[in-house]
Amino acid sequence: MQIRFLPSIITALTALTLTSCSTTTAEQYEATALTSYTWQVNYANNLTSEPRPHIETFATTSVLNRNGVKPPGEVIGPDDRGLWWPTLPPRPSVDE
After folding, report:
1. Which comes out higher in pLDDT, residue 94 or 79?
2. Structural domain containing residue 36
3. Residue 2, domain member (yes or no)
4. Any signal peptide, and if so, which residues (predicted)?
5. Residues 77, 84 contacting (CB under 8 angstroms)
6. Mind listing the pLDDT tens digit for each residue in 1-60?
7. Under DSSP, is residue 68 helix (H, G, I), strand (E, B) or coil?
8. If we measure between CA atoms, which residue out of 33, 31, 19, 41 comes closest to residue 84?
9. d(CA 56, CA 39)
10. What is the pTM (predicted TM-score) of this model?
């Protein structure tokens, strides 16, 4: 008698499992842009004749933009493209 109920139980469990499954599609997108300012100086004995001068990089500041929302902290903008920019990093001194 137990063997007769087994196919019925398996069929019921399979039907219950198949009806409880569903597909969920999430369509969430996030627009991000990293804006930055960097102080750079080109070093060479003669900048006009040397094809690749040495580039020295100093201070950098950056801001991560998300969905056009103003980021926390001191920022400038938004510009005509909706991007927020960081404040300028400290200018390097002659001694640096």
Report:
1. 79
2. 32-86
3. no
4. 1-26
5. yes
6. 445 555 566 665 555 555 555 666 778 889 999 999 999 988 888 877 877 888 889 999
7. coil
8. 33
9. 9
10. 0.61
Block residue for tokens 């060479």: 44
Question: Would you state the pLDDT for residue 22?
Answer: 64
Listed residue (3, 7, 62, 55) closest to 35, CA to CA: 62
Could you give phi then psi for residue 66, rounded to 5 degrees? -130, 115
Residue type, 66: R
- The residue among 80, 74, 72 whose CA lies nearest residue 37 is 74
The Cα 16–Cα 60 span in angstroms is: 59
Asked, for residue 55, whether it belongs to a domain, the answer is yes
4, part of any domain: no
**Residue-wise DSSP of 24-53:** --------EEEEEEEEEEEE-S-TTT-SS-
Residues pairing with 62 in the sheet? 36
* Number of domains composing the chain: 1
